[in-house]
């Protein structure tokens, strides 16, 4: 009986890395056992991990790497034998002091011990041409996020003119010793090198072609950078956060200014970048490439009748110029704005499965 059980365990370990269930592609987690040689650990000391689904056919030598816990920044790097596409997506949040890191280490955002062992690959990670037309047959890898130190955020002031997010990230840089890993051209140019955590400062120094995907009204930025709880102690923005229809004229004006600040920061890239691409829509959303309904579906968000998947594919394969900026809210009727019920959970740091999650965003 013991021998039969042992054989069964061996067969299970040798099984495929992925499982199809109800047409979903569930990909198994793989731990990086040699990461300890270079000091690569999660916050709690557990090993880092990834999920890999192998490519096939014409895409067998191409790779797409998705960094969980960071936001949308695509990079195309042409090699002699292989093509690479790097994506930073889906928020994971950060810890910027010992207490918050210790707390985070006891969750799936700081330890692989608490992570789901199967990840649902859809959107840009799907293996179906009908759902992911340009990258479905590539090798697709999701790298799990567990160190609490990814770069993102917003350096602009909040509604009380305080640098809430800037102060947060400066503490993060100091705590985790991130400054030495920031872009050297950027850190040598700025009086405050820690600002090189923010995309509006380091974009100019990125030489590889890249694609920026973000909404101009990112919900995380709205709730935690523009109107953090510390800036709205009396809850004047609560109704507006729960439903955009409840925002008053002054609040809508502030949100439109927030969008304009982002577009101003992107202006040089938009005008002068010859190899870059962008898709800046006007939806109240967050993380749009990993969800099938926003990546590529019949009713996906569009700019000039082009979905996110089509815009990224056109840019990567040089089929067409792909720098798209949406008109201001509320003109875009294709948006999948986060509903009030979902936003309520979002504000309390809960994701779809009820587990704690703090979202991130890419700001330029």
Automatic annotation (TrEMBL):
InterPro entries: PAE/NOTUM (IPR004963). Pfam families: PAE. Its EC number is 3.1.1.-. GO terms for molecular function: hydrolase activity. It is found in: Secreted, Cell wall. GO terms for biological process: cell wall organization. Residues 1-17 form the signal peptide. Keywords: Cell wall, Cell wall biogenesis/degradation, Hydrolase, Secreted, Signal. Belongs to the pectinacetylesterase family. Hydrolyzes acetyl esters in homogalacturonan regions of pectin. In type I primary cell wall, galacturonic acid residues of pectin can be acetylated at the O-2 and O-3 positions. Decreasing the degree of acetylation of pectin gels in vitro alters their physical properties. This is Pectin acetylesterase. It comes from Salix purpurea (Purple osier willow).
């Amino acid at each position: 009986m013991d021998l039969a059980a042992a054989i069964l365990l061996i067969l299970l370990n040798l099984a495929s890395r992925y499982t199809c269930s109800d047409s979903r592609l569930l990909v198994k987690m793989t731990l990086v056992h040699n990461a300890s040689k270079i000091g690569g650990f999660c916050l709690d000391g557990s090993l880092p991990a990834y999920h890999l689904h192998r490519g096939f056919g014409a895409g067998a030598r191409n790779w797409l790497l998705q960094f969980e816990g960071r936001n949308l920044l695509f990079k195309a790097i042409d090699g002699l034998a292989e093509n690479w596409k790097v994506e930073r997506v889906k928020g994971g949040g950060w810890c910027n002091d010992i207490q918050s890191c210790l707390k985070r280490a006891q969750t799936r955002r700081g330890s692989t011990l608490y992570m789901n062992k199967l990840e649902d690959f859809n959107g840009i990670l799907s293996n179906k041409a009908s759902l992911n037309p340009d990258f479905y047959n590539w090798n697709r890898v999701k790298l799990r996020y567990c160190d609490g130190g990814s770069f993102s955020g917003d350096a602009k002031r909040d509604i009380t003119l305080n640098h809430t997010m800037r102060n947060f990230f400066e503490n993060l840089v100091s705590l985790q010793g991130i400054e030495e890993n920031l872009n050297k051209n950027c850190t040598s140019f700025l009086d405050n090198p820690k600002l090189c955590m923010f995309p509006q400062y380091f974009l100019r120094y990125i030489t590889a072609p890249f694609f920026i995907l973000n909404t101009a009204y990112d919900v995380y930025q709205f709730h935690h950078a523009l109107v953090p709880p510390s800036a709205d102690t009396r809850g004047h923005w609560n109704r507006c956060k729960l439903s955009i229809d409840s925002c008053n004229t002054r609040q809508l004006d502030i949100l439109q200014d927030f969008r304009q600040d982002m577009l101003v920061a992107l202006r040089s890239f938009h005008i002068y970048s010859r190899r870059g691409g962008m898709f800046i829509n006007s939806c109240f959303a967050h993380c749009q490439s990993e969800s099938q309904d926003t990546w590529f579906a019949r009713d996906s968000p569009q700019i000039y009748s082009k979905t996110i998947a089509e815009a990224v594919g056109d840019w990567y394969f040089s089929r067409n110029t792909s720098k798209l900026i949406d008109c201001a809210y509320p003109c875009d009727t294709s948006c999948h704005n986060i509903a009030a019920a979902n936003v309520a959970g979002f504000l309390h740091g809960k994701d779809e499965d009820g587990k704690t999650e703090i979202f991130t965003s890419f700001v330029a």
